[in-house]
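ARCHIVE CARD
Drawer: 12
Card no.: 0347
Subject: one protein chain, sequence and derived structure
Cross-reference: see card 0346
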Amino acid sequence: MLGLISVCLPQKVLAVSSDEGITSFHLYQQKAKQGDADAQFNLALLYHHGAGTKHDHRNAIYWYIKAAQQGHVQAQYKLGSLYYSFRFEEDVPQDSNRAVYWLTKAAEQGYVQAQYKLGHIYESGDVAPQDYKQAFFWYTKAAEQSYYFAKKDRDKMLEKMSQSQIEEVQELSKELYEKIYNKAK
């Protein structure tokens, strides 16, 4: 389990059973209550993984939401992923609208994993209505950041699309790009 945590958590948070880990938890807790988005995200991770505290999925979600609402891209991605995959059973039921909402927030900030996951969601139609134009757009955005699997999946979609569909997707891409770019200004 520690191997998984070491991938997910920042170095300072890793001291799970030492006095330093407990201090880190209390420090993050204090800063999170003061509105620090990074501390809120780190506190959510601690609750989520039970590092330095007991597992508490409700508190994890609470702090992920607090950080995500402040624009913390990793918190937005984590929330979208949790709502997508139904990870906490009764604590976080699968919610396709919330999954797409938070993943889109992260994707619009350029978070490549969110862009790729949205591409998959729109291609498969398992969580949101199937929309090949949206899938192609998000795969392309991720591929532009050299995300191998996004390029591979986008290219597979191209093989199935007609010329008119490709032209529609290119037009949609322009519109979505302008929407995202203008929002960032």
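Annotation on reverse: Residues 20 and 132 are 49 Å apart (CA to CA). DSSP finds ten helices and no strands in the chain.
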